[in-house]
Amino acid sequence: PVLRLLEAQLQDQRREHEEEMEALRNQVDLMQEELEKQQQAFLQSLQLSPEAQVELGLQQEITRLTNENLDLKELLEKLEKNEKKLKKQLKIYMKKVQDFEASQTAVPVERRRQERNMQVAVQRKEKDFQGMLEYYKEDEPLLIRNLIT
Length: 149
Known about the structure:
This protein is mainly alpha-helical. Helix content is 89%, strand content 0%. The chain is elongated and about 115 Å long. It comes from Notiomystis cincta.
């Protein structure tokens, strides 16, 4: 059983490792493709006049900033949506707390005291029956006889 467990764990680790390796290979492939695109764009930009290179650089920077802005807007929308959801939950919980507090003030003070006393009494009864019994060795036959009867 232990050997099978170890074999199963080893197979799980091997499978996880292979999945990680495949994900990393895919990531490397994507990075290589991106690098090739950037190299081609760079080589093309070197063939351009200095003014055209500056214009191309500005266009690329504008594109990058536009994409970054879109990502930030998307993140902002998600955060605002989450904020609304959390505010709704807060309102619900606040209402529950207010209802609970209102129900507590509606219960008469004397009744709450009785409930506390009842709880204390129950706790004392439970304590009376918990623990070990201490007795002298010579009282053992008497104790056993009393337990049986």
